[in-house]
Write a structure and sequence with these properties.
250 residues, alpha/beta, 2 domains, 5-stranded mixed sheet, Nucleotidyltransferase, domain 5, 10 helices, 5 strands, 12% strand
């Protein structure tokens, strides 16, 4: 019998954006069925949710508070998250811009499936790919009506609400991946991970001198300069795209 593969949708709310300095004040984990095919058929009510608040010793930034609206007094007396944190078993951790949450949780051993990257790949026409914007897009194309998305987003940036909304986006994108697959109904979470990894590799530059232009328009001199940057370090997926175009050596 094949080993059970665990995929978990995760979200954190934090005291601020600095990994290694700021702290997690809320976390939520939604454990998904063993295969994408089972996930497509399963109601969320049958899935296990783990949700918890934490205290903090790092001051809450105004930017963080404006995002999640968690008041410090609400967390008074709660223990600070300890590492390694208590999380469900997972081979793959899933979320919108999942690298931030995975790094805040220090779960580098789990493969990251990024619904932000997948949304950019499967809905390139959208003017915004934030989680709420994608949910409004799904409301339109599935004829549910925008009030459906608005109601789901009333508690956005609460970690438990965010993981459910992320799972809704994931479910639709898996439907699209499966529809176009040669092995319909037989996709694994590893397959979804590979699609996500490929989706992270940009086809168009998103910043800098060549912003908005195809990667192939980048000059070798600029590519070499970017690859040598140390502060900040280059985006590894941009480097992969530059290597694919032969602009920097592998």
């Amino acid at each position: 019998m094949a080993e059970r593969i665990y995929a978990v949708v995760a979200d954190t709310e934090t005291t601020g954006p600095d990994i290694g300095k700021d702290q997690v004040v809320e976390s939520a984990f939604l454990s998904l069925p063993a295969t994408p095919a089972e996930f497509l058929k399963a109601p969320f009510e049958g899935m296990t949710m783990q949700h918890e608040y934490f205290g903090h010793t790092v001051p809450m930034t105004l930017g963080a508070q404006d995002t999640h609206h968690i008041l410090p007094e609400t967390l008074a007396g709660l223990p600070v998250m300890q590492y390694p944190p208590k999380v469900p078993p997972m081979n793959y951790i899933i979320g919108h811009n999942i690298d931030f949450d995975r790094d805040m949780l220090d779960l580098k051993g789990a493969g990251g499936i990024c619904t932000l990257a997948l949304s950019r790949r499967y809905f390139p026409e959208l003017d915004c790919h934030r989680q709420g914007a994608v949910l409004y897009h799904l409301a339109r194309i599935t004829k549910r009506g925008e009030s459906w998305a608005r109601d789901l987003l009333r508690n956005a940036h609460s970690a438990d609400a965010d993981v459910l909304n992320c799972a809704r986006i994931l479910k639709y994108i898996i439907y699209l991946i499966d529809r176009d697959s040669k092995v319909k109904g037989q996709l694994s979470w590893g397959d979804i991970y590979q699609v996500s990894q490929d989706a992270r590799i940009p086809k168009v530059m998103g910043f800098g001198k060549f912003k908005g232009q195809p990667i192939c328009n980048v000059t070798p001199n600029w590519a070499e300069w970017y690859a040598g940057c140390t502060d900040p370090l280059p985006d590894p997926y941009v480097l992969i795209a530059l290597k694919k175009e032969g602009l920097i050596p592998y």
